[in-house]
Each structure stands twice: as C-alpha cells, then as structure tokens.
Specification:
402 residues; alpha/beta; 4-stranded mixed sheet; 46% helix; single chain; binds pyridoxal-5'-phosphate; 15 helices
C-alpha cells in the first residue's frame, strides 16, 4: 500500500511538469530547449529556419567560432583523439590539461589551478571539499544554484545573508561559532540580476572574522576589469580571493570549470575532491579550445571595451524607453516584466521579430520578478543593438510593460 502511494506521488510530480509545459505550448508561449540550427557569424544564429539576432548568449566576448580556437580544438583531436583514458587522478591527465591549468593560473595571477568537467560540478566540488559538518558556509542569498547545491552536499551549517548586504554578512560572521571553520561564498556578478558584489567590503569582513573567501566568476571573467581578468581587476585589488572559481562555458567557448588559488589549496582539490577523482577528464578538444581562448583574450583585449560600450548602449536605450533593468552594471541586462505571463508574451513578440531572447520565471527568480534575461556580447554592432531596442519597444508596448 505504501509503495503504491509513493509511486502516485512521483506520478503527480510528472503530471505537474507536463501540465505546466503543455499549458504554455497551447498558448504558443513555450520557448525552452529550442535547437539552434546554425551559427551564422557575428551575433546571428539560425532557428526554425530563420536568422535571428542573439540576445541570450553567455559568449560575452563573441569567441564561439573564433578561428584560432577552432584550429586548436581540431589539432587536439588529431593529436589525442576525442576522449581521455578515464579520470584525471589515474590515466586521464594529458599535457593539455596541465598546460590549460598553468594558463588559467597565470591569467588569474594565482600559484595553481585545477579544472573539472563543468562549472556546476566545480561549485559542488569547491564547497563540499572546503567545508564539512561542524563548519559554517555563508552565502549571498542570490548565489547560483550550483553553489547552493555544494553547500547542501557539504553538510556544513548553511547560512545566507541578504543580497549584497554587508551589514547582514557581518551579522552572520559574528553569529558563527568562533572556533568553526568559516567559508564565505559569493558570485562576482549575479547571474539573474547582473549586479556586482561589494568585494572590497567582503574581503575586509573575511579577514576580520578569519573566514576563507570563494568567488564564482562565471560572469566576471572577460566582462569585468580593463583586460577582462575579473572582479579583482575591476576593483583595483590585488590577489585577495582565496578560491577563484570560473567556468569554461561562457566567455571561454568550451565546457568545464576551474578553481584557481594557492598551491596548497589546489593540491587538496587534486587529492580530495570527489568530482575530480571520480569523474572523467575534460576531452582534448575542449581543453585545447579553452587554453587557446585565454590566449585570444590576451591578444585581443579590445573585445572587453567593445562589450562594455555595447552594454552601455543597450542598457541606456532600454532605460530611456521606460524599462526597468534592475540593478545591473554588466552585460547581463534583466528586463523586468513582473508576471511570468508578461515575460512569456514579451519573448513571443521579440522572437516573432527575430530577436532571440528568453524569459526567466519562478522558481529561478522570486514570483512577481519574472524578467527577460537579455545579454549583450562584443560582436553585436551598434546598429544591431538599435534594431533590438526598436523590437523591445514595440513588444513592451504590446505587452503593456512600458
Ligand atoms: C554563476 C554561475 N556559476 C556556475 C554556473 C555553472 O557553470 P556551467 O554552466 O559551466 O556548468 C553558472 C552557469 O549557469 C553560473 O551562472
């Protein structure tokens, strides 16, 4: 009898997700998992047989398809094939992996770095290896889901402070047991809002209360700082973060994640993090592509300035039209629609006019704060941004948002 009931509970859960998607599909408002058929160059992609302007890409510097990066990936396949011989700790490590990790450490001005098979897994590994039961991990309330999952996996006391509120962070640090090991984890740039953590104050507080500091730079590398080195460069700080986490799937057009820091921390990860020990190494093409991308960022620093100009043009234009872009300061530009239905409606109008943008709705963001999560990239031209603004204006008026 009990088994039947638990089976029914899962069946009800399946039905909930089917109903939710089907309701949207019936109203022509389902936009998730649409396959891109072709990258057409610049910021243009082909979907459903139509060429659209991409305003939902994390490829902030427009490096997907860069000829030097593609060439490096192809050469790696010729040299090493398409897979590795297993996990990194045993036979999976290639010279490509050690070269990539040296490149990352150099780019992030740290002693060493380690790579994992995704950014998500990197955050799971980072938090669950740094802290455990009887320790305390303190997070910004809007940290990425992968950090939250890492905290839950770690078994440490999991405490959250109000978003970017330094008084509340201090309260959490004061409340933690003085003898407990403490780790503070924050996003550099918040992935749904585009605002930047108050790093100088976070660093001061971590030092004052003896906490280690980890920062997720998924949306910071290539975006913040004059040369795209990230949040420390943005604030003109030296090497102040204990553990710098980043992905290889956004500005860096590959897949994977990394942690960069002092030698002894990275040494611990190489021997104690389960995601490194029990999961396969990055494939050769992806490791080579990532390494080449860091080199391209060094060789073509002007892309960072172009991205900043594009973000200012897009954000300024939206504000002038009367949209609420929340607290963003970066290339992630939320366009607040409030109700989920309004966000879906906006997307339908925009995609109808060949602007590819996507909605973010609850539970990814709190109810009543649904938005378009538009992103700008360095390969948008000013004319393309103007065209998107014209489409947004028309869509915003039809949906009753402006
Ligand atoms: C802030 C942040 N951290 C981590 C991740 C996970 O990275 P990946 O997609 O490379 O697994 C993401 C990506 O969605 C992110 O936005």
């Amino acid at each position: 009898m009990e088994m039947v009931m638990s089976h029914d509970k899962i069946a009800a859960r399946l039905q909930f997700w089917l109903d939710r998607a089907n309701r949207l599909k019936d109203d022509d408002l389902y936009f998730f998992n649409q396959p891109i058929e072709e990258i057409c160059g610049g910021a243009r992609v082909r979907l459903k047989g139509r060429e659209m302007l991409m305003f939902a890409s994390y490829s902030y510097l427009g490096l997907i398809g860069h000829p030097k990066i593609n060439a490096a990936a192809k050469a790696a396949i010729d040299e090493f094939g398409t897979g590795t011989h297993g996990v990194r700790l045993l036979a999976g490590t290639l010279t490509l992996h050690t070269e990539l990790e040296e490149t990352i450490a150099d780019f992030k001005s740290t002693e060493d770095a380690i790579t994992f098979s995704s950014g998500y897994v990197t955050n799971l590994a980072a938090v669950s290896t740094m802290v455990m039961r009887h320790d305390v991990v303190i997070c910004d309330k809007l940290n990425h889901a992968s950090i939250v999952d890492g905290c839950l996996l770690s078994g440490a006391d999991f405490v959250r402070f109000k978003h970017n509120d330094m008084t509340d962070l201090e309260r959490c640090l004061q409340k933690a047991d003085a003898d407990a090991a403490k780790l503070v984890v924050v996003d550099a740039v918040f992935s749904m809002d585009g605002d930047i953590i108050n790093l100088p104050r976070v660093v001061e507080l971590c030092r004052q209360y003896g906490a280690y500091l980890m920062v997720d730079e998924a949306h910071s590398v290539g975006v913040l700082g004059a040369t795209g080195r990230g949040i420390e460069e943005h604030f003109g700080l030296g090497n102040v973060i204990d553990l710098k986490m980043g992905t290889l799937s956004k500005t860096i057009p590959s897949v994977g994640g990394y942690l960069a820091g002092k030698k002894d921390i990275i040494h611990m990860f190489r021997h104690a993090s389960r995601a490194f020990i029990f999961s396969a190494a990055l494939p050769p093409a992806q490791a080579a592509a990532a390494k080449a991308a860091f080199q391209v960022m060094r060789d073509e620093p002007e892309r960072v300035e172009t991205l900043r100009r594009n973000a200012a043009q897009f954000m300024g234009g939206l504000k002038q039209l009367g949209f609420d872009t929340m607290q963003t300061e970066t290339a992630i530009v939320p366009v607040l629609c409030r109700a989920d239905e309004k966000a879906f409606e906006m997307v339908r109008y925009c995609q109808h006019d060949d602007i590819f943008v996507l909605p973010v709705v609850s539970p990814a963001v709190p109810e009543g704060l649904a938005r378009l999560r538009a992103t700008v990239i360095a390969t948008h031209t000013p004319a393309e941004i103007d065209r998107a603004l014209t489409v947004f204006e028309r869509a915003g008026k039809r949906a009753g948002i402006i």
